[in-house]
Amino acid sequence: MIKLYTHPMSPCAQKVRIVLAEKGLDWNAVHVDLAQKENLQPEYLKLNPLGVVPTLVHDEKPIIESSIICEYLDDAFPEPRLNPEDDYQRSQMRFWMKHIDVKLHPSCGALQWPLVMRPSMMEKSEEERQRLLDQIPEKPRRERQKRLVSMGLEAPDVVDSVAIYRKTILQMEKALQQHEWLIGDQISLADICMAPYFQTIYQFGWQGMYADCPKVAAWFEKCSQRQSYQEAVSSDFSEEVLADLRNKGQEAWEVIQRHLKSMN
Ligand SMILES: N[C@@H](CCC(=O)N[C@@H](CS)C(=O)NCC(=O)O)C(=O)O
Asked: pLDDT confidence of 35, banded at 50, 70, 90?
């Protein structure tokens, strides 16, 4: 009944998987190999014209855009409820979700792509690489991926992305000084949609990004200890995968730190 086109390291697919786990739903995974650009195959583009994961198919109807999928699941399967009853708090939940979609998500991509996707793209011939990248449907995304593939962490997108991460962390620290979760004392989609972006920090060992933000550190600890997170996210990161990501992250930390310092 529920099928999810997904990739283990995609934060926007991770948030949907956490919602599915919170609600105890049965679902089938279809793995989309992003490094090989399976997301741009004509069959997949029929489901998701933007050529990205995740795509949820429920009762044979496709739903795209991770935040919309999360809200859809919360409406279609209301228990346990993951949005607050209070209208103002619900508006704040959507504010965080929008911030994540518009700002944090592209920033996460700019930090992940050079380390995770670029190596397999660089193994291809120049011609094949350009052919694949030219198929990306939206121009800004296409141009950005080309920069990230050709320049890696030296791409100009990276410095802005580190700044967006850092500003988000400071905003979160303030919010978490007021309440236990991002918008109140109950977990909501705001937390669930945010947590995977901290998996990226964790997997690369970049917790130094929030070394001065104890509330953020405690919040991520709490998110990642939930059974839903363990099932939906942590279980995809074997010791071997984590060790490889930590190595990549360690090599890149100097650049990240340089960008963090340039903000002060
Ligand atoms: N706004 C979309 C973003 C989806 C997105 O960017 N997905 C990434 C993985 S996290 C992807 O499929 N990238 C493949 C590509 O750009 O080639 C959503 O929230 O669903």
From this structure: confident
Protein residue closest via CA to atom 2 of ligand 1? 65
The matching CATH number, chosen from 1.20.1050.10, 3.90.1150.10, 3.40.640.10, 1.10.1610.10, for 87-262 is: 1.20.1050.10
Query: Of 18, 21, 20, 23, whose CA–CA distance to 79 is shortest?
Result: 23
- Are 54 and 4 spatial neighbours (Cβ–Cβ below 8 Å)? yes
Please say whether the beta carbons of 129 and 149 come within 8 A: yes
32 CB under 6 A from ligand 1? Answer: no
Measure 47 CA to ligand 1 centroid, in angstroms.
14
Which tens digit of pLDDT belongs to each residue from 150-195?
Answer: 999 999 999 999 999 999 999 999 999 999 999 999 999 999 999 9
Separation CA 84–CA 96 (nearest Å): 14
Burial class (CB in 10 A: 0-12, 13-18, 19+), 94: middle
CA 118 to centroid of ligand 1, rounded, Å: 16
For the whole model, what pTM was predicted? 0.96
